[in-house]
Amino acid sequence: MMHTFSRRRFLQLAGMASAVSVLPRAFGAASPARVVVVGGGFGGATVAKYLRMWGGDKVAVTLVDPNPSHIACILSNLVVTGALTMDRITLGYNALKEKRGVKVQQGRVIAINYGSGTVSLSDGTALAYDHLVLSPGIDFVPPPEGPWDPNVTPHAWQAGPQTLLLKQQLASMRDRDTFVMTVPKSPYRCPPGPYERACVVADYLKRKKLIFAKVVVLDANPSIQAEPVAFGEAFNFIYKGMIEYVPNAAVTAVNSTTRSIQTSAGDWSNVRVLNYIPNQRAAAIGPASSLNRGWPVLNAQGFVPVDPLTYGISGYPNVHVIGDACAVPASEGKAVPKSGHMANAEAKVCADAILRSLNGESPDKNITTNSACFSPITATIGSWLSANFNYGDIYDAAGKVKGKGMHRVDLGEAPRTNGDNYQDMFTWAEGLFADSFV
Ligand SMILES: Cc1cc2nc3c(=O)[nH]c(=O)nc-3n(C[C@H](O)[C@H](O)[C@H](O)COP(=O)(O)OP(=O)(O)OC[C@H]3O[C@@H](n4cnc5c(N)ncnc54)[C@H](O)[C@@H]3O)c2cc1C
Q1: Which atom of ligand 1 is found nearest the CA of 375?
Q2: Closest protein CA for atom 21 of ligand 1
Q3: How do residues 133-163 score in pLDDT, each as one tens digit?
């Protein structure tokens, strides 16, 4: 389910290629093809692993990330409530280095020279590439008015110190206090994530017997964006009177100093915890002042349009973007979700396309990708959502073919929230962590 391509299938194809004596261009060269991967999260770690696993010594992979390990957002809402500790979501790079032979370089990419095929790191190092894969995740769009400071009012939408700050602030809540949080305008990282957070925060307050404390969910969208049945039931029954859900609440100002927020649906002032999760866009890959923040092209929502057969950027066939930063062409109303599971699937498609290209072959067109998100609803029960996509025709709102892309062929939701789903969440997460980082 998680594997877009089996290794066996890949090797069969590789075997066919050698049987007809197709001499790979870069694979035939004396030195291995150089692939630089920027970002060691779910997309970057997976593509680095699979390039080495499928390409062997014919490909030299350097993975660049500013941090010595990756802290996963997945399960991080349970760190906020104290149900899990940070070590459970901290994923190291040792297996990629030792087992897969990936060179891991700690550093931040500050510029890409697409003409000469090099990336520049903040320490002055330059790395040359034959193929470049970018998986830097997301950045935040500041609110229209401030003063906004995420170190005072955390978003906790990139895991790490932000997660711990929100945990600390939640732990400081007393009865009759209010926790105000926002849901960004779609598309954003992890569609069910904000609603899941509202549930586990309310559950935490309930278990602490703070029964007059409130959670206000200010949604910039007109309705719940994922698992409306499960979260609708949770808001209306399990947490009735405790969670207040406010749709169409576009944020107009955030004051981190006074912990106040203004929206098109009303204002909240001097709240105990303000968990403002801003609207999102592709993480910058160049200076903030540079054109498109370093990207050759961005769509209107600030993400990078890609070809779903290779994850290449139009006009830059050896530069690939995967994970939350990319925008995959899809049918209207059936967007490809920004999830770790999806980043992992896209990484495998991208790795296969790069190896085929180095082999002088065209990309495979028989592609499927998928995504899963498991959400805790209380400390013991959970829900899930899954979606599958096939490459082919994609459709506009009127049902007319508008081009090629990843068409969603099914969308599954847990028929009911229960304890099995909660337990399955850990099995699924551990599987995804291992498939990406080990
Ligand atoms: C609360 C929450 C719950 C979630 N739950 C789920 C879930 O149940 N299922 C699921 O599938 N997904 C879930 N997600 C979403 C998932 O975490 C993301 O979709 C996933 O991490 C995206 O992978 P990525 O590789 O695009 O980005 P990331 O995993 O964020 O990795 C980006 C990496 O790039 C690095 N980087 C950034 N800029 C640079 C640079 N200039 N130079 C070098 N490195 C750089 C960063 O340090 C980071 O390590 C959840 C997210 C949240 C916030």
Answers
A1: 8
A2: 340
A3: 999 999 999 999 999 999 999 999 999 999 9
